[in-house]
Write a structure and sequence with these properties.
- The protein is an alpha+beta fold.
- Helix content is 61%, strand content 14%.
- The chain contains three helices and three strands, in the order βαββαα.
- The protein has a three-stranded antiparallel sheet with strand order 1-3-2, covered by helices on one side.
- Strand 2 and strand 3 form a beta hairpin.
- Helix 2 runs antiparallel to helix 3.
- The radius of gyration is 21 Å and the shape is elongated.
């Protein structure tokens, strides 16, 4: 059933497909005109740890840049946005592990 397309104007088998997905580690992804059955892709532990390390390093770089901008009296708004986005991504990654 992977790859099955359910067109939005013909949803008569949606429930059956959703039940199959639940039983077979798959999910339904929405496209413009149809839904498609795709396998659930889980991140490997090594990939998750690598990404977490990258995000932690990025936070340190941003903090250093912020300190430099503070000393130089330059704009820090972009650094603040990047820091917030990185923290949000890191929290999302950690939340996925907790679930």
């Amino acid at each position: 059933m992977i790859g099955t397309k359910i067109y939005k104007d013909k949803l008569n088998n949606y429930t059956e497909v959703a039940q199959w997905c639940n039983a077979n580690n798959a999910t339904i992804v929405e496209h413009e005109d149809y839904y498609e059955v795709v396998p659930v892709v889980e991140k490997s532990e090594d990939e998750r740890k690598r990404r977490e390390t990258e995000l932690m390093y990025r936070l340190e770089v941003i903090k250093s840049g912020y300190a430099g901008a503070e000393l130089m009296g330059t704009d820090k708004e972009t650094l603040q946005r990047e820091y917030k986005a990185t923290v949000e991504e890191l929290l999302k990654l950690q939340k996925e592990v907790a679930e």
